[in-house]
Design a protein that fits this description.
Length: 178
C-alpha cells in the first residue's frame, strides 16, 4: 500500500475522506511512518506537528525544546530515537514553512483522531516542551490555549494541564513594584 493510499490521497477517487483535505505537513511526516498502521501514523504525524507548532510559537526552537520533543515521541510514539529525530526535524520545517496555513487544519485532524485522554496527554506534552528551558513565554502559553480551544477542550482542561507547569509561567514570574 502506498503512502497516498494510506492517507486516502491516491489519484483514484475512492470517495470523500471523513477528515477532508489532508495537509501537506501531515502527509510529509506520515511518509516517515509508512511501516505503521495508517491511523497510528496520522495520529503521530499530527502529534509531532503540534509539538513543533508550540516550540516554534516564538519563532525559535531551542535545543532543549527539540530534545524534549524527541523524548516525547520516543516515549509516547514508541519510535526509535532516529525516527523521532527525523520526524521532529520535518515537523519543525513544516511549521516554519507552512504553519500559518496548516495550524488549524492539523489540529482539526488531530481532534478527529484523538480521544479526550490523548488530547489531555498532548496538552501536558505541549507544556513540557515549552517548559523545557524553564520558562513558558506568554506566546507559548497563548498558542497552547489556542490549540486547546481548537481541540474543543474545556477551559478547565487547559487549566488542569497548565497548573502542572505553573512555576515556569513567565506571567507568574513578573515582579511588581510595591
Amino acid at each position: 500500500m502506498s503512502i497516498l493510499d494510506l492517507l486516502g490521497l491516491s489519484s483514484e477517487k475512492k470517495g470523500n475522506s471523513s477528515t477532508g483535505r489532508k495537509t501537506d505537513s501531515v502527509r510529509e511526516i506520515s511518509r516517515q511512518l509508512e511501516h505503521m498502521d495508517r491511523d497510528r501514523a496520522r495520529y503521530l504525524a499530527a502529534f509531532a506537528y503540534l509539538l513543533g507548532r508550540v516550540a516554534y510559537a516564538d519563532r525559535d526552537v531551542s535545543s532543549e525544546e527539540a530534545e524534549m520533543m524527541e523524548r516525547v515521541l520516543v516515549k509516547i510514539g514508541h519510535l526509535t530515537e532516529d525516527q523521532a529525530v527525523l520526524i521532529i526535524e520535518i515537523a519543525r520545517q513544516q511549521n516554519r514553512l507552512f504553519g500559518h496555513v496548516d495550524n488549524f487544519l492539523v489540529t482539526r485532524e488531530f481532534n478527529e483522531l484523538a480521544t479526550k485522554k490523548q488530547k489531555m496527554e498532548l496538552l501536558s506534552c505541549l507544556f513540557a516542551i515549552s517548559a523545557s528551558d524553564k520558562s513558558i513565554s506568554n506566546i507559548e502559553d497563548s498558542e497552547i490555549r489556542q490549540i486547546s480551544g481548537e481541540l474543543l477542550l474545556e477551559h478547565r482542561d487547559f487549566i488542569a494541564a497548565r497548573s502542572q507547569f505553573r512555576e515556569h509561567l513567565d506571567i507568574l514570574k513578573k515582579e511588581y513594584p510595591g
